[in-house]
């Protein structure tokens, strides 16, 4: 096999993580927008779902994301004291703790799930969080849930 074909094959088999981000409309989604408007470079390997509040992200949402092929899930909301709904981010912590316990019960590495606080003005922080999480999931590799034989229905 010549060098060109070898490089093409390596690129074809290289793992590209599938990451789902649940972002609060008022802070984190706006922080992602700020990063984009300011042309701050970050990994494109994620899909963002805008939620009205990070406290509304239930374990069911996260588990469904994993079931549908996510290799990692990031939940991002407002900093404490800045929540549009006052206590939504406290509820997010409660939901996240429940979700983390379920993820662990399923045998998934807890590092595949992360909770972060990013405000609307923190475009650089948004990029940092995304790049770090994408890197972490890339090291972990594909989710074991994505590579199990599918049952015939």
Can you describe this structure?
With 153 residues, this protein is an alpha/beta fold. The chain has one domain: Lumazine/riboflavin synthase (Rossmann fold, 3-Layer(aba) Sandwich). Helix content is 43%, strand content 14%. The protein has five helices and four strands; from the N terminus they run αβαβαβαβα. It has helices at 3-13, 28-37, 59-67, 88-105, 123-140, and strands spanning 19-24, 47-51, 72-77, 113-117. It has a four-stranded parallel beta sheet, sandwiched between helices. The longest helix is centred in the middle third of the chain and has 18 residues, at 88-105. The chain starts with a helix and ends in a 13-residue tail after the last helix.
Helical residues, percent: 40-55%
Specify the CATH architecture: 3-Layer(aba) Sandwich
In N-to-C order, the SSE pattern is HEHEHEHEH
The rounded Rg comes to 17 Å
CATH class division: Alpha Beta
Number of DSSP strand runs: 4
- Based on secondary structure, the structural category is alpha/beta
How many domains? The number is 1
Number of helices: 5
> What does the average pLDDT come to?
91
Which geometry do the CA atoms define?
A: globular
Give the termini distance in whole angstroms.
41 Å
Low-confidence stretches: none
CATH topology: Rossmann fold
Tell me about the biggest sheet?
4 strands, parallel
Strand order of the largest sheet: 2-1-3-4
The percent range for strand residues is 5-15%
CATH superfamily name?
Lumazine/riboflavin synthase
């Amino acid at each position: 096999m010549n060098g060109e074909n070898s490089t093409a094959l390596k690129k074809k088999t290289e793992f590209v993580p599938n990451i789902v981000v649940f972002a609060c409309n008022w802070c984190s989604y706006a922080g992602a927008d700020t990063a984009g408007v300011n042309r701050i470079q970050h990994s494109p390997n994620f899909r963002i779902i805008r939620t009205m509040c990070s406290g509304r992200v239930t374990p069911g949402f996260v588990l469904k994301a994993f079931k549908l092929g996510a290799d990692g899930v990031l939940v991002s909301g407002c900093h404490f004291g800045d929540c549009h709904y006052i206590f939504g981010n406290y509820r997010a912590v409660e939901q996240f703790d429940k979700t983390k316990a379920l993820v662990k019960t399923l045998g998934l590495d807890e590092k595949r799930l992360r909770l972060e606080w990013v405000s609307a003005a923190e475009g650089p922080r948004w990029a940092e969080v995304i790049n770090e999480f994408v890197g972490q999931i890339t090291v972990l590799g594909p989710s074991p849930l994505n590579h199990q034989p599918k049952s015939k229905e």
